[in-house]
Amino acid sequence: MLTYELKKTPGVPLYEALYRCIRADILSGTLAPGEKLPSKRALAQNLEVSKITVEAAYDQLLAEGYIRSREKVGYFVEAVERRPQPQPRREPAEQRREPEPLLDLTANGTEHFPFTVWSRLQREVILDYGRNLLLPLPNRGVLELRQAIAEHLLAFRGLRVDPENILVGAGTDFLYNLLLQLLGREKTYAVEEPGYGKIRRIYAAGGVTCVSAPMDAQGVIPEALDQAQVLHLSPSHHFPTGLITPVNRRRELLDWAGEARWIIEDDYDSEFRFDAHPMPAMASLDSRGRVIYMNTFSKTLAPSIRISYMVLPGELMARFQRELGFYSCTVASFEQYTLARFLTRGQFEKHINRMRRFYKNRRNGVIRLLEGSALAKDLQILEQDAGLHFLVRVNTTLSDRALTGKLAALGIRVKALSEYYHDTPGDRHCLVVNYSCLQEDRLAQALEMLERELREDSDIM
């Protein structure tokens, strides 16, 4: 008679525990091929379980071919090929985590998310839409959100768009990959130099040729784009320099695009200009339909709200529907309807205005601490209106790698501007200070520690 200790395990029905025990005995050879199993009644009595439990376990074994049934005779073990059971793969021991830095000037964060307003809108959406939230979505996103985005773009970016040309997706990474399929992998894509390295990596992973687009003080240089058919740029707020491309250079780039090339305008983080109104989008100057406008709510609201969108020229949207229209929308309707109300009721505008004031005060506080420290004579602050980061030029004899390494040893995590160059590496003695997550008391503490270190080690500056 089979004897098992069947322990109640959360999430595992009793019949499944019995099924697993019998299957293990069959695979190990403890139960030989052709051997008769106890009757359902007898096994249930022996294990002190219900007959229904045994019946369910036998049915599962039958369905998977581990046993066979002979009418009015009983259940018999099938001849099952017994292969060596794979050993659990040993994962390398968890790497020792680096201690949390005293100051992290590389992290992005979200302050003062409007939880109260957002949760109220979510409750409204559930009450108003009910089971309709479970229905399939239009592949471009729900119409209410696309209409709200179109109104927002007209009011704040000077961009008049048809909601039918807006495509909503779960993050810009997803949209970049759609564009690779839509524009073609045989084309050469140019990305800004210096620039955000992840974009280059996404394009490279997509199997396309990616080249650098050199920049001067006005942005990407059109004459240096001979190899490219697609240009990816951030003309309203370049990262990491904070550069804004003036209108004349924008027109030169549109002339470069002409009738056969494409420009992807990535408007990420353009909302956080403090001392001037955000510049109109480059797409608003486009009369030929060659600019693809992209933006996201991940920076302005929260990184976990993966709602991004792009505005495709009519020709491209028609091609998308014809060739890629089988793709489903990747953002839940619940989140889309909530964001639509957040936009149309003016809550997004209020949130952005509130966060501009908050981050401007934080930026000014950080700059005051730097300018008031003993290190000020060796620091030059650049591009103070560059959104949620700025550049600091350092008077030092160290290489950029050595400088950031020494700072890391002191608990200060920061990136050098040179890390954002791909084709033209070299020391620039410039640090990228991201202050969106910065705590001013920690900065003051770090500066005091740096001042003490300077007195002992004059090699830093």
Write the topology of this structure.
Layout (H helix, E strand, L loop, with lengths): L13 H15 L11 H8 L3 H14 L2 E4 L3 E4 L25 E2 L10 H15 L13 H15 L8 E4 L2 H12 L4 E6 L3 H9 L3 E8 L2 E2 L9 E4 L13 H11 L4 E5 L24 E6 L11 E4 L2 H10 L9 H12 L2 H25 L7 E4 L6 E6 L5 H10 L2 E2 L1 E2 L13 E5 L5 H17 L5
Parallel strand pairs: 3-14, 5-6, 5-8, 8-9, 9-10
Antiparallel strand pairs: 1-2, 4-11, 6-7, 10-11, 12-13, 13-16, 15-16
Helix pairs in contact: 1-3, 2-3, 4-10, 5-10, 11-13
Task: Describe this entry's structure for a reader.
The chain is of the alpha/beta class. It has 3 domains: 14-77, Arc Repressor Mutant, subunit A; 103-109 and 351-456, Aspartate Aminotransferase, domain 1 (Alpha-Beta Complex); 115-345, Type I PLP-dependent aspartate aminotransferase-like (Major domain) (Aspartate Aminotransferase, domain 2, 3-Layer(aba) Sandwich), CATH 3.40.640. The protein is built from 13 helices and 16 strands. The chain has helices at 14-28, 40-47, 51-64, 115-129, 143-157, 172-183, 197-205, 247-257, 314-323, 333-344, 347-371, 400-409, 440-456, and strands spanning 67-70, 74-77, 103-104, 166-169, 188-193, 209-216, 219-220, 230-233, 262-266, 291-296, 308-311, 379-382, 389-394, 412-413, 415-416, 430-434. It has an 8-stranded mixed sheet with strand order 4-11-10-9-8-5-6-7, with helices on both faces. Strands 12-13-16-15 form a 4-stranded antiparallel sheet. Strands 1-2 form a two-stranded antiparallel ribbon. Helix 1 packs across helix 3, helix 4 crosses helix 10 (333-344) and helix 11 (347-371) runs parallel beside helix 13. The longest helix is centred in the last third of the chain and has 25 residues, at 347-371. It is extended and about 90 Å long. The termini are far apart.
